Amino acid sequence: MRAQRKEGLASRGSLPRKAPRRSSNEGGGSLRKARKVTSRRARFSPPGAATLAVHAGELRPAVAGAIAMPLWSSATYELGAAQRYDDIRYVRLNNTPNQEAVAAKLAALEGCEAALVLPSGTAAVSFALAALLRPGDHLLVQRGVYGGTRKVLEHLRATMGIEASYVEGERPETWAAALRPQTRAFYVASLTNPWLEIADHAAVVDFARRRALVSIVDNTMASPINFQPRLLGFDYVLHSASKYLNGHSDVVAGVIASSREAIERLRVFVNRAGVCLDPHACHLLQRGLKTLPLRMEAHNRSAAQLAARLERHPALRRLRYPGLASHPQAARAAALFRGFGGVLTFRLRSEAAAKAFVGRLRWAREAPGFGGAETLVCRPATSSHAGLSASLRRALEVGGEVVRLAVGLESSEDLIDDVLSALEA
Predict the structure, then answer these.
(1) 282 phi and psi, to 5 degrees?
(2) How much helix, strand and coil, in percent to the nearest 5, is found in the chain?
(3) DSSP label at 178?
(4) Which residues pair with 378 in a beta bridge?
(5) How confident is the model at residue 332 (pLDDT cuts 50, 70, 90)?
(6) pLDDT of 81-107, one tens digit each?
(7) CB atoms within 10 A of CB 377
(8) Helical (H) or strand (E) element with 203
(9) pLDDT tens digits, residue range 209-245?
(10) Is the pTM value of this prediction over 0.85?
(11) Span 17-23, average pLDDT
(12) Handedness of CA 178, 183, 189, 193 (dihedral sign)
């Protein structure tokens, strides 16, 4: 039965139960006592993020005793006792072992009941909005969202007549003026890309709830280690799993996390489009998630050290990092986030200076993206925001002189020396 097959996957905030052994070298009383203590602790102390990253979603009992999650490359499975079309075990129906296991781990890390994995972060944005909105609907969107999200919204406007009004996420007093009778949702980012602005997230949730709007947050830039939007009351949490979640620059994937009922409706909607994440990608993502807390600790620490060294550097016209007191929403960042991430954004005196700086770096590689082991550097005007018009880029202050630096896992001393040398050459 499908319900029986799912019992081995961790649910929200829980750990898989260990299968009882038939025999043990330890005394039975000692083993029972140890289990009783563990159970008692679990009731009073929920597992931490590092424990969930390792154990949530893992199959128990293990298949053939395997410690690592196996990879099931089968595209189809025996029918069993499936009662509905969407319960047939099939990769395209998003219910095979690797798909369900990684989704359970992601849901636990985000503090949600369930999650759905998709082939990219853009797919997560596209399907979440397409499933929740209808032709002619309207939504509020934080002004500084990722450039690719703006392209999705342009496409939805052209094909479905869904309109978006862009608002300042940190100015709640301006939101009501942007409402329309057709407004159905409010979409924000935990941190905007590239300028790392922080919306008043608690106010977003309250504003949406009082007006029966769906609240959606893209948590890619923060990660569930630094911020869990669901605990504030957001309805849907999205990710590009290609970034921090996977952490090795070798998987493209997306995530939608929410309530169990909401995710099941989304899964059926996505199934009709024939969209799924390949089990091999699921397997790599699940492996990457196990080290997410450790990697985020390193990203947070190294980026904070680099930001502190650059804060008063004369070559920079502006530096933005949420952990600095100079950040315009520094107090909000300190209240919301457990860490401030691995991304810094700054402006140099000219586009030529930015190009020269990027070219002089030794360890950082010029490429879009963030969250991997390697430090990456890019100019958003030629990467994440290249698809926007020049006038819109100017309005968003994303000119050719702007540099986004995504700190990796190298020695922080080496990275600081590299960046300072490139700035001062």
Answers:
(1) -60, -40
(2) 45, 15, 45
(3) G
(4) 404
(5) very high
(6) 878 999 999 999 999 999 999 999 999
(7) 24
(8) helix 201-210
(9) 999 999 999 999 999 999 999 999 999 999 999 999 9
(10) yes
(11) 39
(12) negative
Show the tokens assigned to 318.
Answer: 């502006």
CA 337 distance to own-chain centroid: 14
**Cβ atoms of 118 and 270 closer than 8 Å:** yes
Residue 302: what residue type?
Answer: S
- Report the alpha-carbon distance of residue 252 to residue 372 in Å, rounded: 12
Does residue 54 contact residue 290 with C-beta atoms inside 8 Å?
Answer: yes
Environment class of 163 (CB within 10 Å of its CB; exposed 0-12, middle 13-18, buried 19+)? middle
Q: Looking at 24-33, 225-234, 331-340, which range is the least confident one?
A: 24-33
Helix boundaries (H) for 250-378: 260-273, 279-289, 292-310, 330-336, 351-360
Among residues 353, 368, 351, 373, the alpha carbon closest in space to that of 405 is found at: 368
- Whether the bond into 194 is cis, omega within 30 of 0: yes
**Any bridge partners for residue 114, and if so which?**
258
Beta carbons of 305 and 415 less than 8 angstroms apart: no
Residue 255 corresponds to which tokens in the numbers above?
Answer: 């995530």
Q: Tell me the average pLDDT of the chain.
A: 91
What are residue 378's phi and psi, to 5 degrees? -155, 165
